[in-house]
Design a protein that fits this description.
The complex is a heterodimer of chains A (330) and B (350). Chain A is an alpha+beta fold and 330 residues long. Chain A contains eight helices and 14 strands. A seven-stranded mixed sheet of chain A has the order 9-11-8-12-10-13-14, sandwiched between helices. A five-stranded mixed sheet of chain A has the order 1-2-7-5-6, covered by helices on one side. Chain A is globular. In chain B, 37% of the residues lie in helices and 18% in strands. In chain B, strand 1, helix 2 and strand 2 form a beta-alpha-beta unit. Classes of the chains: A alpha+beta (330), B alpha/beta (350). At the A-B interface, strand 14 of A face helix 1 and helix 11 of B.
Chain lengths: 330, 350
């Protein structure tokens, strides 16, 4: 394989291979090694989380959000799941010649609103314009820094820990699939695009919180497979406990998607000790974004990989998907 | 009695109690959606050891002959043609590549009525609808013909008949089928009576089932019960949807436009009377005739055992290419392409 394929941007196995085989070969700083959503840095004695993300979603406007809101929420979420309180964000824009100023203003407005709502400041930015047909409307890059208040290294996770999801899965992926109008389906499913700092920050005070991750591209299944592979531990997921909206389930059945692999933009997987799981649920459920939170499984040292206990009590494997169900989902 | 039980555990217990301890039982499903339910519900992990649930020829994309795909690629490369077909067909490999990789003018559709809209929107082009599938997709294609299609729309029919292939399977001693789960959607069209031949002529219990795991397991339990008490007949645990006579209106229009033909099945070979072609009266709509398409000899893909998988003679995991050279992203054989293909389903669940 000599060329970049669309799957190299899926966030799944191909992306990881690319990072390992190309980037880490030349850029092997120790801060990169954990390969988490944000780097944890020591600046002048204080611990800082630093992250960056580019947004290439199609379409730019979708039910529940747009590329502007997404570019703020996504970066905030990468910081907060790293145990940080997000503080400052940068904004880089690559715009295609001929792009509507009206649309640009709409996007800027949602960036401003999302930043205000999340209580962060946009402190620096950059604008570039490329010739017509050299990019698809607009691409956005945001980087963010936050103050780490709770270290959450993956090595915290151990046998018996509970796997918690903060709400229904697959909403974002479903809403984008529908918004692309490739299917003749009417639906009310909105993207769950939201900043999670308000929901997750209160968890930092709980002793038993071990690790968090926002299951975006590749969904819940991909995050858990990565977790399992990195730790050499097994994860069992109980299908009937995974919250899925009725309409999301119906649409994914019809389109052949599995909600466990569909992208989310306003959900987090939280791993806590079994003893703390009730307390975690209690705190999550107090927040509007966490009312459907549920314990969906547990970490186990008795097997490897991710096993799904199905509704009828059967078992099947959840693996990382090589094919990208929906490219350019974020 | 069976039909009122909806608790998975009770049905599983019943299945265990009905399976003889001294003998292997092989039950085949002939519908990709059934195999999907079985695999994604982890049903095999709950079955008694000596009960095998075998995926059969249930994926229409998988059995579509290579010759038709190559002809479709050729058509889509004509400047005067737009080829329209179902999404999966664009990705099926052939020795000349896939339609998506090697074709030029093609569009994905999700229903035959979209072919009409495309034809109306492109009056200066010839629209060829590459129409594939079992009875379930034949009926809607017949329906657009019955409603009347634009002059510039032609049909490349690669439809297949489910009962005919099932009869071939029964006669193949190597497969050894003790019971059939009859396909729910196909049965809704052809009716449960279409399966009577299997109980009456071959003594094989055949039960129509739906697509929920519990309903499918009820179907399995009924097959086992029939085998146990020796009273073999056509069963139907999907009676809310499937009637004994089926959808007679659909059958009528299918018979009006199509007639059985001798066709190839990919990886299986030539089976007389197992396909459907447009009747002579409608040959002006038949892309094979209008564009004078020739049959192209199929070549075995080296190492690929899709033919055996389709016939229930091997499991996807028996293939040396499975999860190695052959993945959903880089399918070597047709069964890895469609989400109804056994290899694709097994890739995601095993």
């Amino acid at each position: 394989m000599k060329q970049i394929e669309i799957g190299h941007g899926s966030g799944g196995r191909l992306t990881r291979d690319l990072i390992k085989n190309i980037f880490l070969k030349y850029l092997n700083s120790e801060e990169l090694i954990p390969m988490e959503d944000a780097a944890i840095l020591n600046l002048n004695g204080s611990t800082t989380a630093f992250t960056t993300d580019s947004y290439v979603i199609r379409p730019l406007f979708f039910p529940g959000g747009d590329i502007g809101k997404l570019s703020v929420c996504g970066t905030i979420n990468d910081l907060v799941v790293s145990g940080a309180v997000p503080k400052y964000i940068s904004l880089g824009l690559i715009i295609e010649e001929g792009f509507s100023l009206e649309d640009l203003e709409k996007i800027a407005k949602s960036i401003g609103e999302a930043a205000k709502e999340a209580g962060i400041h946009i402190v620096t930015g950059d604008t570039k314009v490329v010739e017509k047909n050299k990019c698809d409307g607009i691409y956005i890059n945001t980087s963010g820094v936050g103050e780490v208040v709770k270290a959450l290294p993956l090595s915290n996770v151990s046998d018996g820990d509970s796997v918690i999801i903060t709400g229904t899965v697959g909403d974002h992926g479903t809403s984008i699939a529908i918004a692309r109008e490739e299917f003749d389906i009417q639906s009310r499913v909105e993207s769950d695009c939201a900043s999670l700092n308000g929901l997750l920050a209160p968890l930092f005070e709980i002793e038993g919180i071990k690790w968090m991750r926002d299951p975006t591209r590749g969904g819940v299944a991909t995050v858990l497979v990565e977790l399992s592979e990195s730790l050499g531990l097994g994860v069992q997921v109980m299908e009937e406990r995974v919250p899925v909206r009725e309409d999301v389930r119906f649409i994914s059945d019809m389109l052949g998607y599995d909600p466990l692999y569909l992208a989310n933009e306003g959900k987090a997987i939280v791993i806590s000790s079994a003893e703390s799981s009730n307390r975690v649920l209690e705190i999550l459920k107090r927040h509007p974004l966490g009312k459907n939170a549920a314990v969906i499984g547990k970490v186990s040292s008795k097997f490897k990989g991710v096993r799904l206990k199905t509704r009828i009590g059967g078992e099947r494997l959840l693996d990382m998907l090589e094919e990208d169900m929906l490219p350019r989902i974020c | 009695m069976l039909r009122n039980m909806d608790k998975s555990k009770e049905i599983i217990k019943l299945i265990h109690s009905l399976v003889p301890s001294d003998k292997k039982i092989r039950i085949m499903n002939v519908c990709g959606s059934h195999e999907h339910t079985i695999a994604f519900s982890g049903m095999r992990s709950l079955m008694p050891e000596n009960l095998e649930l075998i995926p059969g020829p249930g994926c229409p994309v998988c059995v579509c002959p290579e010759s038709d795909i190559i002809n479709a690629i050729g058509l889509s490369n004509r400047a005067d043609v737009i080829l329209v077909t179902y999404g999966d067909m664009l990705r099926v490999p052939s020795k000349q590549g896939s339609i998506r990789a090697q074709g030029s003018n093609y569009k994905m559709i999700t229903s035959p009525s979209e072919a009409i809209s495309i034809a109306n929107a492109n009056p200066d082009k010839k629209i060829v609808f590459f129409s594939i599938g079992f009875e379930t997709t034949t009926a809607p294609t017949a329906a657009i013909l019955e409603m009347g299609v634009p002059e510039n729309l032609f049909i490349l029919s690669s439809h297949r008949l489910t009962p005919t292939i099932m009869e071939i399977l029964v006669k193949d001693a190597e497969i050894g089928i003790d019971g059939f789960i009859a396909p729910g959607h196909v049965s809704a069209i052809v009716g449960s009576n279409a399966w009577n031949v299997f109980s009456e002529k071959y003594g094989i219990p055949t039960v129509v089932a739906g697509f929920e795991a519990d309903n499918l397991m009820l179907g399995i339990a009924e097959i086992l019960e029939q085998l146990k008490n020796g009273k073999v007949r056509t069963g139907n645990v999907y009676a809310g949807v499937v009637r004994p006579e089926g959808n007679t209106q659909a059958q009528k229009i299918m018979a009006k436009y199509f007639e059985p033909s001798d066709v190839n099945w990919r990886g299986i070979g030539h089976i007389p009377g197992s396909g459907l072609e447009l009747r002579d009266e409608y040959s002006s709509k038949d892309a094979r005739k209008v564009f004078e398409l020739k049959e192209i000899k199929e070549e075995q893909i080296p190492g690929c055992i899709c033919g055996k998988v389709i016939l229930g003679k091997a499991y996807p995991s028996d293939c040396k290419l499975f999860k190695k050279a052959c993945t959903p992203k880089t399918p070597t054989g047709p069964c890895m392409v469609s989400m109804e293909g056994s290899c694709n389903i097994w890739y995601k669940t095993n």
